[in-house]
Structures are given as structure tokens and as C-alpha cells.
Amino acid sequence: MTTEFTNVQRAEVLTQALPYIQKYSDRIVVIKYGGNAMIDKQLKQQVMEDIVLLSLIGIKIVLVHGGGPEITDMLHRVGKQSLFVDGLRVTDKETVDIVQMVLAGKVNKSLVHLLEMQGGSAIGICGLDGHLIEADTKDTRLGYVGAITNINIKPVVDLLEKGYIPVISTVGCDMDGHVYNVNADTAAAWIAGAIKAQRLIMMTDVAGILRNADDPSTLISNITVEEARNLFKTGVISGGMIPKVECCIEAICRGVNKVIIMDGRVPHSILMEILTDEGAGTMVVGD
Asked: Less Cβ around it within 10 Å: N or C end of the chain?
């Protein structure tokens, strides 16, 4: 059933959002975007609309994206099988070339185009531009998978100061010119820390941190870094959630105010988090 809003009700909604608009005006929010929220075309367009809205009301948005499914699809097209070790894609020279082509080309530019179509001003860059993401070999078993060694944040700052939404694909490089596939969650944490973001929003395919993985009603709304580390020990945080929460802790330790893990499949979850009292997902804060 479709709910029709009167003009008065619309005005009330905007008025209620005013304190949050004032709170975040001219502040930096880094959004890590990927997974199922990126695959669904309608949801992708909605996420881009939300980002443009936030940008137009004065919030400085930095969009960091992945593209695992698109990489897997392209590898399949060229007859190359995807191999994983400890959840990370084994990346030989041919694979890293495809990763660069898909992330810095197809995925990055399609997101920039969508933002522009919604009325935003966006510029796509990758970790190679201005040596934004410097990296080195993470594990010789993984080939060209990079561990971040440094973030040169100036290209991102310059774009924000000019009024653009930086859209960042996470390929990195070393001083010898080697290109690396860098985990997008990790890159978002480092970039958010380097730019001292007010918030880092990690869009995932789960509601947040759950005390019982099979029961969405056990969502933990707020958690400190120390409490999160205790949940590692007790096994409450396990499996694929471990690296995501580790990235949240990394961001907090690098100076980010708050980190949110939220379900990117929920329509307008970004707006609910930033512009309402209730918020969305799990908020991770410092001790």
C-alpha cells in the first residue's frame, strides 16, 4: 500500500532533519559501498540519490567502492577461475590487470555517471592517482594483493574543496610501480582516518553486529572498541564479520569519530543513519 504525504507532512519531515543537517554540515562522511547493494540496479540508483542529497545539503561525502562480483564475472568471461585464500582473492599479474580495468574503469565510472545523472558533481579516481593508496605485498601466496603502507590524502582533500564527491576505487601501488588489489573495507578505514572523517559508513549485506547471527532482533546498536574485541574472544563476532569489525576498529584508532556497519540492502539506510535519531545498523565508537 502506498502512503501519500501531504505538503505539511513533508515540511515536518524536513524540519525534523534540520538538527542533523546542521550537525553534519561541512563535515566529512566516508561511505564504503559494495556487495549486494551495488548489484541491484534500483537499489544502486537509490544509494546514489541519497549520496547526492547529502552532498547538496552541505555534507562532504567520500565514496570508496569495491567490485568483487564484477571482477569475478570478468574473470569468468576470460576463462580464468577465481581462487581464494583466507577469504582473499589470489591475484596474479593477469588478474591484477583485470582488477584495475574493472574497478578503476567500469565500476568507478558507472558510479560517477549515476551520481552525475542524479544532479551530483563527482570525479572518479583510483589509488594510483597521486599515489593515494601506497601498498606492498600482503602475502606471497596471494600474489598482487596489497597491504596498505600509506595514504596520500591530498587528492581527496583537493576534490572535496572544489565541491566534488570523490569516488575511489581501491587499487594501490608501490614505489616500483607494481599495482595491487587492495581490500575496499581496509582502504575505506585508512582513508577515513587520514581525512579525519566524522563518520565511516560500512555498507554490508547484514543488519550489523548480531549477538545471535540467526536472529536479527539481537542487533547491537552501539558498541565500543573494547566491547567489540571481547566479542571476538567469545565468538559472537565470527566469520566474515571479523574483518569488517577489524576495519571499524582500525578506523577508530586512526581518528575517525564513529563507524557504522549497516545493511546496504535497506532502502535509504544512509539517510536513516545520518538524518534521524534512530539511525541504522551498529555504531562502533572509541573507548
From this structure: N
